[in-house]
From TrEMBL:
Transmembrane segments: none annotated. Keywords: ATP synthesis, Cell membrane, CF(1), Hydrogen ion transport, Ion transport, Membrane, Transport. One of its GO terms (molecular function) is proton-transporting ATP synthase activity, rotational mechanism. Its main location: membrane. Pfam families: ATP-synt (PF00231). NCBIfam families: ATPsyn_F1gamma. GO terms for cellular component: plasma membrane; proton-transporting ATP synthase complex. It is a peripheral membrane protein. It comes from Candidatus Butyricicoccus avistercoris. The keyword DNA repair does not apply. HAMAP family: ATP_synth_gamma_bact. It comes from the Bacteria. This is ATP synthase gamma chain. The lineage of its organism: Bacteria, Bacillati, Bacillota, Clostridia, Eubacteriales. F-type ATPases have 2 components, CF(1) - the catalytic core - and CF(0) - the membrane proton channel. CF(1) has five subunits: alpha(3), beta(3), gamma(1), delta(1), epsilon(1). CF(0) has three main subunits: a, b and c.
């Protein structure tokens, strides 16, 4: 019995060691990708902040309320751009943003644009209209890759096919913290601050503030979508690194416990053999 138990424990130890090698490798890969992803986040944030302030300033200088992009309308259909990962094994990264999307869609007539394979797979199994799927683009996405998505969104918005647009993504706060976000991108709304108020009287627009505002809107939305994708990708790698680190730690602890069990089983087998030898010697004597 002891010999059979020892073989089972030995087999489990080898299995857990093989799993730990995989989780360690995935942790290293995620760490490497995270470094590059953080650089993209760091570079994208100043661009987005600048274009946001520019849009807010123009909105102060023009009758933005009359623009098709800012004028409120009766909401009959809502578009949700849901950004998830292309792979699993990332802790709660994918499930958290999908849960937020489900919550935000309550009481609305939603349609969806999916970015990421996990988002695509999720909505393929649900009774929600999917306008377009964009899997496997987050890792290599450039700002120009957002143009087809934004152009299609604006075309539908102008035609009245959709009445509001939300982006759901995961913000990269720190390597240990990622937070799901839902931002309304259409119709546009800006908050004025002291900076925009001071710049209001110092800026001239050609041909007009309204024309400049309309021409900058697509670039603003491209920047917002790109920023959401790179934030989400960095969050995905960070979540995967933490999940794999935790899995490796758990595997290491399991191996220690199995080694302890193996040593105990081996000691029990040795003790049993000694007992049998002593008992046999006593019978011979």
């Amino acid at each position: 019995m002891a010999s059979g138990n020892m073989k089972d424990i030995k087999r489990r130890i080898k299995s857990v060691q093989s799993t730990m090698q995989i989780t360690k490798a995935m942790e290293l890969v995620a760490s490497s990708k995270l470094r590059h992803a953080r650089e993209r986040v760091t570079k994208s944030r100043p661009y987005f902040n600048t274009i946001y302030k520019t849009m807010a300033r123009i909105a102060q200088d023009t009758k933005a309320g009359d623009s098709i992009y800012t004028k409120p309308r009766q909401v009959k259909k809502s578009l949700f751009i849901v950004i998830a990962g292309d792979r699993g094994l990332a802790g709660g990264y994918n499930s958290n943003v999908l849960k937020l999307a489900a919550s935000e869609m309550q009481g609305k007539n939603p349609c969806v644009v999916t970015i990421g394979k996990k988002s695509q797979e999720y909505y393929a199994k649900r009774d929600v209209e999917v306008i377009a799927d964009y899997p496997n683009i987050a890792e290599t996405m450039q700002i120009q890759d957002t143009h087809p998505i934004v152009n299609d969104m604006l075309s539908r918005y102008k035609k009245g096919e959709i009445d509001e647009v939300y982006i759901l993504y995961t913000e990269f706060v720190s390597p240990m913290t990622q937070e799901t976000r839902c931002k309304k991108v259409l119709p546009l709304a800006f908050e004025a601050d002291e900076t925009t108020e001071k710049a209001k009287s110092l800026t001239e627009y050609d041909p007009s503030p309204e024309a400049v505002f309309a021409s900058v809107v697509p670039e603003y939305l491209n920047g917002m979508l790109y920023g959401a994708v790179v934030e989400s990708y960095a969050s995905e790698q960070s979540s995967r690194r933490m999940a794999m680190e935790s899995a490796s730690d758990n595997a290491s602890e399991m191996i220690e416990n199995l080694n302890l069990s193996y040593n105990r089983a081996r000691q029990a087998a040795i003790t049993q053999e000694i007992t049998e030898i002593v008992a046999g010697a006593g019978q011979v004597g």
